[in-house]
Amino acid sequence: MVTSELDNTLEDWERQVDELVRGISQITSLVEIEAIRVTWLGRRGRLTLLAREISPRIRALGALDPDTQRRAGTKLNTWKDAVTAAIEARKIKLDRAALTARLAGERADVTLPVLSGGAGHIHPISQTIDEIIAIFGEMGFAVAEGPHIEEDFYNFTALNIPPEHPARQEHDTFYLPEREDGSRLVLRTHTSPVQIRTMLARKPPLRIIVPGRTFRCDHDATHSPMFHQVEGLVIDRATHMGHLKGCLIEFCRAFFGVDDLPVRFRPSYFPFTEPSAEVDIGCLREGGQLKIGAGADWLEILGSGMVHPRVLLNCGIDPAEYQGFAFGMGIERVAMLKYGIPDLRIFYESDLRWLRHYGFVPLDVPSLVRGPLPAGAMP
Ligand code: DAH
After folding, report:
1. Nearest C-alpha neighbor of 324 from the set 158, 212, 208
2. Ligand 1: which of 141, 170, 209, 270 to mutate, judged by most atoms within 8 Å of the beta carbon?
3. How far is the CA of 265 from the centre of ligand 1 (A)?
4. Atom of ligand 1 nearest to the CA of 190
5. pLDDT at residue 211 above 80?
6. Whose CA is nearest to atom 4 of ligand 1?
7. Per residue in 189-205, pLDDT tens?
8. Of 86, 94, 280, 354, which residue is 20 to 30 A from 71 by alpha carbon distance?
9. 233 CA closest ligand 1 atom index
10. What is the DSSP letter of 117?
11. Three-class SS string for 3-72?
């Protein structure tokens, strides 16, 4: 009697579970699936309660009817597993369908035209470097590069700046920790070491420019511990001061876009050149404004000179056979002058509003004469 009553109950439940499992495979909403899980398998779910209710009865069968006892126990577990598996399988299916639908909705058509205004801008430093390369490139110069972390030999000694030379102090050098042999690497204080590297690696004639980063421990409105320079070097037979002057006058006029820009060569001193000259361009300072190419004022923009014979010898070049000239220029400085940027620190602040204003449109190729000027920029 007890057994047949239990059998009926189990049969009834079996039918319900079968129906439920079939039903789950038709459900289309994850919320509904979760509701079913709670209703059937939750802590107060139907199968949980059933187990609690009939377990004592099953246990009571004990020795009387061990077969039915086993069957009943197994059934309960089988139902739980079946409902759990059906729920999981349906969930996976619905999750996948949702993902597919989302991906279809978010599909990007890469053939559509680009949205205007979304493009980035070229940083004025990069733009200025490109312009300088374009001008010297037209004159037959090739771009050379060198490491930022440099041997003392290339940064100083080979450039005729021996350890005791006072010019070393002017360079505000960043030194790396001492090495085992007592020597110290430096962050290059100028791009001039690349002159040495090039002369040691290649045979003249040479005509290179070297744009790149340089480092000095100095920080204010016109100095930054990291800044950029461009170095120039020409080595050939019978190179003389006239070549230096012609080349740099041509450059200044092209870069600032002023055909009759006054350019002045002022005697100066650099350990690696002899004679040496600083180059000034004509300008007008009026009411806090600076106008390049007009007026009676002068503005220094670069250093230059004939390569010192000792530097040539340091690089295995015979000064009786080859001569050369060199120059070095701060890129930030000429960029600030050309584009009317008052403070150097803003170059490195990564302020997108600033970049949108002063930056350049990527696909505008810098022209030989000058890059496109943003509104309101000088000259
Ligand atoms: N290296 C110099 C500096 O950083 C700039 C310079 C001056 C480079 C004269 C040259 C040169 O090649 O000839 O101040």
Report:
1. 208
2. 270
3. 14
4. 4
5. yes
6. 190
7. 999 999 999 999 999 99
8. 86
9. 12
10. T
11. HHHHHHHHHHHHHHHHHHHHHHCCCCCHHHHHHHHHHHHCCCCHHHHHHHHHHHHHHHHCCCCHHHHHHH
Q: Are 376 and 137 in contact (CB under 8 A)?
A: no
Atom of ligand 1 nearest to the CA of 305: 13
Q: What angle do CA 316, 318, 321 make, to 5 degrees?
A: 145
Q: Domain 124-358, what architecture? A: 2-Layer Sandwich (3.30)
Q: Residue 187 C-alpha to ligand 1 middle, in angstroms?
A: 16
Find the 377 Cα to ligand 1 centroid distance in Å: 28
CB 91 within 8 A of CB 30: yes
User: Six-digit token pair at 58?
Assistant: 């099953």
| pTM attached to this predicted model | 0.68
Residue 361, pLDDT above cutoff 70: yes
pLDDT digits (tens, 9 = 90+) for 145-187: 999 999 999 999 999 999 888 888 778 999 999 999 999 999 9
Which residue ranges make up each domain of the chain? 2-105, 124-358
Supply φ then ψ for residue 68, to 5 degrees: -60, -40
Q: Classify the C-alpha dihedral 145-148-154-155 as positive or negative.
A: positive
| Pocket around ligand 1 at a 6 A CB cut-off | 190, 192, 231, 270, 273, 303-305, 326-328
Out of 141, 192, 218, give the residue to mutate to test ligand 1, the one with the largest number of ligand atoms within 8 Å of its CB: 192
β-bridge pairing 297-307 and 186-187:
unpaired
Could you read off the pLDDT of 304-324 as tens digits, one per residue? 999 999 999 999 999 999 999
Find the distance separating the first CA and the last CA of the chain, reported in whole Å: 108
* Total residues belonging to the chain: 379
pLDDT tens sequence across 241-261 = 999 999 999 999 999 999 999
CA distances from 303 to 53, 266, 306, 336 (A): 97, 9, 11, 17
pLDDT at 184: 93
Instruction: Tell the burial category of 245 from Cβ atoms under 10 Å away from its Cβ (0-12, 13-18, 19+).
Output: middle
3-state secondary structure of 299: strand
Cis, peptide link before residue 225, omega less than 30° from 0: no
Distance (Å) from CA 270 to ligand 1 centroid: 7
